[in-house]
Amino acid sequence: MIGSIKGKIILKTEKFLIVGTDGVGYKINVASDTLSRAKKIGEEILLWIHTHVREDTLDLYGFLDRQELEFFEMLINVSGIGPRGALAILGIASIQTLKKAISTSDTVYLTKISGIGRKTAEKIVIELRDKIGEEKGGSSLQEELDTLEALKSLGYSQGEAREALKKVTPDIDTNAKIREALKILGGK
């Protein structure tokens, strides 16, 4: 089982990285957040790996930190959530926000994810709520949704808005989050 890979980025696409180490290039599926934080081609990277084996494929899923890997592995243990679905979930918000949505049984927030319906969101909440416990601190999920909608109304895509919100200070009010997100989006 592969636990981590350290090597140089050979190729960077919208869904995966190819990381070269000792003459071998590993195709590693990553979340959009990991792609945006990954370094440039030719630079070295360390990814924590989940090896997913099925009868016809062997896929690698990479994460920049162990907390992301552990949350990913919790998600794929929920019936009906596969590795690609788990990556999509990790791509929409920070782990802290996702844990808060699960611990507060906010299925509406989880259904904002493409491909996650009400029943699947309820399964995620039921199966993971006790494992996660109660998340404290940070802003409410409604404030985050309001901030997201405000950024979308200003012409940003949902993906751009979510990426910016992941980088915003969590313990500030909605207006301050919007201002900070706009600074981040303006810097691109």
TrEMBL record:
<dbReference type="InterPro" id="IPR036267">
    <property type="entry name" value="RuvA_C_sf"/>
</dbReference>
<keyword id="KW-0347">Helicase</keyword>
<dbReference type="GO" id="GO:0009378">
    <property type="term" value="F:four-way junction helicase activity"/>
</dbReference>
<dbReference type="Pfam" id="PF07499">
    <property type="entry name" value="RuvA_C"/>
</dbReference>
<dbReference type="InterPro" id="IPR011114">
    <property type="entry name" value="RuvA_C"/>
</dbReference>
<feature type="region of interest" description="Domain I">
    <location>
        <begin position="1"/>
        <end position="64"/>
    </location>
</feature>
<keyword id="KW-0227">DNA damage</keyword>
<feature type="region of interest" description="Domain III">
    <location>
        <begin position="146"/>
        <end position="188"/>
    </location>
</feature>
<keyword id="KW-0963">Cytoplasm</keyword>
<keyword id="KW-0233">DNA recombination</keyword>
<keyword id="KW-0067">ATP-binding</keyword>
<dbReference type="InterPro" id="IPR010994">
    <property type="entry name" value="RuvA_2-like"/>
</dbReference>
<dbReference type="GO" id="GO:0005524">
    <property type="term" value="F:ATP binding"/>
</dbReference>
<comment type="subunit">
    <text>Homotetramer. Forms an RuvA(8)-RuvB(12)-Holliday junction (HJ) complex. HJ DNA is sandwiched between 2 RuvA tetramers; dsDNA enters through RuvA and exits via RuvB. An RuvB hexamer assembles on each DNA strand where it exits the tetramer. Each RuvB hexamer is contacted by two RuvA subunits (via domain III) on 2 adjacent RuvB subunits; this complex drives branch migration. In the full resolvosome a probable DNA-RuvA(4)-RuvB(12)-RuvC(2) complex forms which resolves the HJ.</text>
</comment>
<dbReference type="Pfam" id="PF14520">
    <property type="entry name" value="HHH_5"/>
</dbReference>
<dbReference type="GO" id="GO:0000400">
    <property type="term" value="F:four-way junction DNA binding"/>
</dbReference>
<keyword id="KW-0238">DNA-binding</keyword>
<dbReference type="InterPro" id="IPR013849">
    <property type="entry name" value="DNA_helicase_Holl-junc_RuvA_I"/>
</dbReference>
<feature type="domain" description="Helix-hairpin-helix DNA-binding motif class 1">
    <location>
        <begin position="108"/>
        <end position="127"/>
    </location>
</feature>
<comment type="similarity">
    <text>Belongs to the RuvA family.</text>
</comment>
<keyword id="KW-0234">DNA repair</keyword>
<feature type="domain" description="Helix-hairpin-helix DNA-binding motif class 1">
    <location>
        <begin position="73"/>
        <end position="92"/>
    </location>
</feature>
<dbReference type="InterPro" id="IPR012340">
    <property type="entry name" value="NA-bd_OB-fold"/>
</dbReference>
<dbReference type="GO" id="GO:0048476">
    <property type="term" value="C:Holliday junction resolvase complex"/>
</dbReference>
<comment type="function">
    <text>The RuvA-RuvB-RuvC complex processes Holliday junction (HJ) DNA during genetic recombination and DNA repair, while the RuvA-RuvB complex plays an important role in the rescue of blocked DNA replication forks via replication fork reversal (RFR). RuvA specifically binds to HJ cruciform DNA, conferring on it an open structure. The RuvB hexamer acts as an ATP-dependent pump, pulling dsDNA into and through the RuvAB complex. HJ branch migration allows RuvC to scan DNA until it finds its consensus sequence, where it cleaves and resolves the cruciform DNA.</text>
</comment>
<dbReference type="GO" id="GO:0006281">
    <property type="term" value="P:DNA repair"/>
</dbReference>
<dbReference type="InterPro" id="IPR000085">
    <property type="entry name" value="RuvA"/>
</dbReference>
<dbReference type="Pfam" id="PF01330">
    <property type="entry name" value="RuvA_N"/>
</dbReference>
<dbReference type="InterPro" id="IPR003583">
    <property type="entry name" value="Hlx-hairpin-Hlx_DNA-bd_motif"/>
</dbReference>
<keyword id="KW-0547">Nucleotide-binding</keyword>
<protein>
    <recommendedName>
        <fullName>Holliday junction branch migration complex subunit RuvA</fullName>
    </recommendedName>
</protein>
<dbReference type="GO" id="GO:0006310">
    <property type="term" value="P:DNA recombination"/>
</dbReference>
<dbReference type="GO" id="GO:0005737">
    <property type="term" value="C:cytoplasm"/>
</dbReference>
<keyword id="KW-0378">Hydrolase</keyword>
<dbReference type="GO" id="GO:0009379">
    <property type="term" value="C:Holliday junction helicase complex"/>
</dbReference>
